[in-house]
Write a structure and sequence with these properties.
Layout (H helix, E strand, L loop, with lengths): L1 H9 L3 E5 L7 E5 L1 H9 L1 H10 L3 H21 L54 H6 L5
Antiparallel strand pairs: 1-2
Length: about 140
Amino acid sequence: ASQAIKALEASGYLVRQRSKADGRSVSLRLTNKGNKALARDPFEVLVRAVDSLDAKERTAVHQTLHQVLAAVAASGAHPRFGVCQDCTYFGGERCCNPTIASPSTSVRQLLGVPIQPEDVGLLCAHFQPTSDHRDSGHHE
């Protein structure tokens, strides 16, 4: 990650700002160039579009995407898709998404890294449905 940050800084997309409070911690801020690039990012455009929906519309999109992901999984193109709250390992000492980390929560991932409570709805490439785990007779 630090190499990516250095590259973004060198390209003028990010700047580091040292904390005035403690003088040690550093925060990263998008520059105008970074904000312009983010505004053009197709994923960010999608996020803003979804954010503009009301609660009923978001629920409908969520349900539709869940059906699409289930169809993709059933086709064998990808073995499984899912989110933490539906995962075998969620809530115990193990959970499966190695990309989400924060020291502020006690829910642990497969590799022992904490998960932010607001991130348990993110898709996980290592997802294992709770029903598969129970059906297999395997217990951790």
